[in-house]
Design brief:
alpha+beta, 2 domains, 5 helices, 12 strands, elongated
Length: about 250
């Protein structure tokens, strides 16, 4: 194992000490002569491990911006990461407010196989908020950039079909498609558009299922809980997700 003591033994005692950056720490870290470590044909296979240890012992966190230090690359499935992050923050925000927040569920089915009477085409929304035994809202994340240059800012019709299925199968009147906010979008993060799902008359005023298109700004992560809370708490003046729509038809 490559440890600080091992490196000292390899390079002798030619090291200098400095106080640890943490004021609560009583120990002193040592500035090791990293550049003097030489790898040969036999030890070259340990070089990646050595670079990783150097990263840890120096306390150097990786970042998404370029720098002078060389390190390894990390690749993440941002669809999964974005979904999981938003889901966990949503649970942390709305759990104490009496909501039962479920990630990737509860599972429902879009149809029934008439031959064997078994459910078919399972659906598992990213985040579901229930209160009083009823689904209050559904939140579905999309790691896709919206664009002012595209029709409906690039919201894909297939995604609306998916939200329509969620709203009907879960009997939910408020479904949100959540995208990452970025500088090219005008205004601040939040709800950008709302669509009533399949209104049948030209002028109506009643509870109507809707899909809201919203963004969340990830620049300062500590603001994300407040942004998510505003998506739903700011709608409290609309009783149980009631939407007033007039002069609208399909």
């Amino acid at each position: 194992m490559i440890t600080q003591r091992f490196l000292e033994r390899v390079q002798g005692s030619d090291v200098e000490t400095y106080p640890a950056p943490c004021a609560k720490c009583d120990l002193h870290r040592q500035v090791l002569p990293w550049s003097r470590i030489v790898f040969d044909r036999l030890s070259d296979r340990y070089k990646p491990c050595f670079k990783l240890v150097e990263l840890f012992l120096k306390g150097t966190p990786p970042d998404v911006t370029g720098g002078n230090a060389q390190s390894f690359s990390l690749f993440f499935d941002m669809n999964v990461l974005f979904e999981e992050y938003i889901g966990r923050i949503t649970r942390r925000v709305f759990g104490p407010q009496g909501y039962q927040v479920t990630l990737q569920g509860p599972q429902q089915h879009l149809a029934v196989d008439l031959d064997n009477q078994r459910p078919a085409f399972a659906m598992k929304p990213d985040v579901v908020g229930k209160k009083g035994g009823k689904v209050a809202w559904i939140l579905d994340t999309k790691w896709k950039p919206l664009s002012l240059q595209r029709s409906k800012e690039g919201v894909q019709q297939d995604d609306l079909y998916q939200m329509y299925a969620y709203a009907n199968c879960y009997d939910c009147s408020d479904v949100v498609l959540l995208y990452p906010h970025h500088q090219e979008l005008s205004g601040t993060s939040g709800v950008r558009n709302s669509f009533g799902l399949n209104p049948r008359v030209r002028s109506i005023e009643k509870n109507l299922r809707r899909v809201r298109i919203a963004t969340v700004d990830l620049t300062v992560l500590r603001t994300v809980p407040v942004q998510l809370e505003r998506l739903f708490i700011d709608q409290s003046e609309e009783s149980d997700g009631a939407v007033r729509i007039s002069n609208f038809c399909v």
